[in-house]
Recover the amino acids of this structure.
């Protein structure tokens, strides 16, 4: 049986889809069979982030309506053969798809994967319910900003209404230079405010929105180490968290920090 993890946040634009895609890549690099399930229906973008948007033939609505079988809708990643994507619908027909539908789809393919990562839409309405319903674990994504932390906290409360057995937070877009200068909310305070386990910290990294020439998610960038640690921690509870401040320490680090401030 696969571990079924929903990646959620409440607030939009904090990096749920990015983290879902990258965590999928890094778990598959560890040798696991991973399915990325895009539950952000109508505003799908996991296929775009994965460079698979041109290959979509069928999507989750086709599976639910019986137009195709689940396996026909799955797209295999060209770089990581144990990584698959089940795309969401391009048109907004979400009202027809319920949490129960998503669960039925997952039940059909559960045995073929080690991990099913469900990318949740923003908000706490029907789309949230649809994405969370079939999950047994949750990753709550926050950025170091009060509005994001407040929304994520609400989501943690709502998760209590579902069969979520374990949950943790990932702090995304952390800036090591601002952390050291005390201009960004620190990790401890976020963890304390949220009151749930810290699974990982991902640095602000310009490479995140880019792709390599062969359509691959960038893996030779700063965030790569952070995602490797996150994948290991999710898998075996290693508790190793990426330190965003390391390159800003010492004399050279001090200079880097100041250069960054002036650009
Ligand atoms: N760690 C990061 N560093 C830099 N940009 C990031 C990072 N995480 C996400 N982004 C960018 O932020 C934007 C929103 O991310 P996305 O994953 O689509 O958010 P969500 O799914 O929560 O709406 C995207 O343009 C993405 O490339
Ligand atoms: Mg998204």
């Amino acid at each position: 049986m696969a571990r079924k993890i929903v990646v959620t946040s409440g607030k939009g634009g904090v990096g749920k889809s990015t983290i879902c895609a990258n965590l999928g890549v890094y778990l598959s690099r560890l040798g696991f069979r991973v399915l990325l399930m895009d539950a952000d229906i109508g505003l799908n973008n996991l296929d775009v982030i994965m460079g698979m948007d041109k290959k979509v033939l069928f999507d989750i609505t086709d599976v639910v309506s019986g137009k195709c079988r689940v396996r026909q809708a799955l797209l295999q990643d060209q770089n990581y053969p144990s990584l698959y994507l089940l795309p969401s619908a391009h048109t907004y027909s979400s009202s027809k798809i319920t949490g129960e539908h998503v669960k039925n789809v997952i039940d059909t393919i559960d045995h073929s994967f080690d991990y099913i990562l469900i990318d949740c839409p923003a908000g706490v309405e029907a789309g949230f319910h649809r994405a969370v319903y079939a999950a047994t674990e949750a990753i709550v994504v926050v950025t170091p900003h009060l509005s994001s932390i407040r929304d994520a906290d609400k989501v943690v409360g709502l998760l209590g209404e579902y069969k979520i057995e374990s949950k943790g937070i990932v702090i995304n877009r952390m800036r090591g230079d601002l952390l050291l200068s005390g201009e960004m909310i620190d990790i401890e305070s976020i963890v304390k405010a949220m009151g749930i386990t810290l699974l990982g910290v991902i640095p602000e990294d310009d490479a995140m929105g880019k792709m390599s020439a062969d359509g691959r998610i960038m893996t030779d960038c700063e965030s790569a180490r952070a995602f490797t640690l996150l994948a290991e921690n999710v898998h075996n509870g290693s508790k190793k968290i990426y330190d965003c401040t390391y390159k800003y320490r010492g004399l050279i680090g001090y200079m880097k920090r100041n250069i960054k401030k002036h650009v």
